[in-house]
């Protein structure tokens, strides 16, 4: 951890203990994501169909008919290097990090229990292991992204939208790692409040707008990089609430004013947190715990630029432009329920090094290959474990949870548009089979892909262990010898 010192200069240059400048941020480390999702986190349920014959059991996780499954996953890296990591850094693990490490290691393995499905025509069987459902697991995020995109569809309006990315200076990013419970929410609130306040005052708008904000803490190399992504509509309600006020097409709030207001609001709140004793100063951060030292560390941050970037998402010119709405939902889903690195970016493990792809924003957004020692890879991943119950996606303005339904209805009336019909949830055989291990027994049966005639029937289930049971297991996450056999429920239909 680098404690920031100040040197001379008009702007108060920021340097770390190594003498390297820590100015605003790694400005080109995080960009507007265009992540390659072509191999994103294929569910094991997609991999088995077509295997097996008669009553024999299918080997679901290694079907040669599905070559798109990632060859390497974050869970694989954890399983190979977790013991070495624990021997070196186990004493540093928080409870949340320990839980993430354990649950990702056993995600979709026999430790998590399984559902057994059988075709009522050909008798083919498959056992699908349960998912961990941890929000930091890259393998489990795809269905949550789809669900979130489905829900956010009802909030869209027929107006232009903008994507705003706000980045904290590196000293703030490092300090936030020691104070995630206080500074992560502050990052979201300060950015959204800056947009809302400027929209109310700026002569080109003077309206109440809305902000949908998401917090990310990582860069492409899983380094610490605190930033937020905001989706902002190009207009809002007038001050009296009686009409809709639109921004000029292609025009957004002045970024220089927004940058200064964001910086001012964040630093003001940071000082309030310090005076109220809500900040912690572990390890080297004790060097700035005294009021004079904290002020000395804080004052240069008011002089440097806090980077804000802007991108127009789409201009929806008519209420029936369903394609534009679908594009926006797809665009937003890239940022929701995202973790520090997806399985699709992992390449291989060679000589104790984990090879993975990353996008170099300093070199024309080129995809390149990097490597990290396995222990460091785990350490960087766990760096981005969020505090328990922390909501990293929040809504502000007329999208606020308490007022959204009423105000959206009124805005649509002012715009002369109807509430969009709920988007159909993903359907079809692929989707049905993909979620097969998670459906309830009373759900409609799924069609067997082996014979394409019969339907899959749930015939057995071993429930997933509780969090307490997982935390009591040996760190290798192998079941204890004296834990007794898992109870098998046969048949499940008897309980319906």
Question: What can you see in these coordinates?
Answer:
Helix 1 (74-89) runs antiparallel to helix 2 and helix 4 packs across helix 5 (180-201). The model is unreliable at 1-28, 34-67, 426-444 and 480-496 (pLDDT under 50). The longest helix is centred in the middle third of the chain and has 22 residues, at 180-201. The N and C termini lie far apart (56 Å). The protein has helices spanning 74-89, 95-106, 141-152, 170-178, 180-201, 255-275, 291-298, 322-333, 374-382, 404-415, 429-434, 467-472; strands at residues 5-6, 14-15, 57-58, 114-119, 125-129, 161-167, 207-208, 210-218, 224-233, 235-238, 244-246, 308-314, 346-350, 353-360, 366-373, 393-397, 446-447, 455-462. The chain has a domain at 5-30 and 157-339 and 384-415. The chain is α+β, with helices and mostly antiparallel strands and 496 residues long. The chain contains 12 helices and 18 strands. The strands form 5 sheets. Strands 3-5-4-18-17 form a 5-stranded mixed β-sheet. The protein has a 5-stranded antiparallel β-sheet with strand order 12-6-9-8-16.
Task: Give a quick precis of the structure.
The N terminus and C terminus are likely disordered. This protein has 496 residues and is α+β, with helices and mostly antiparallel strands.
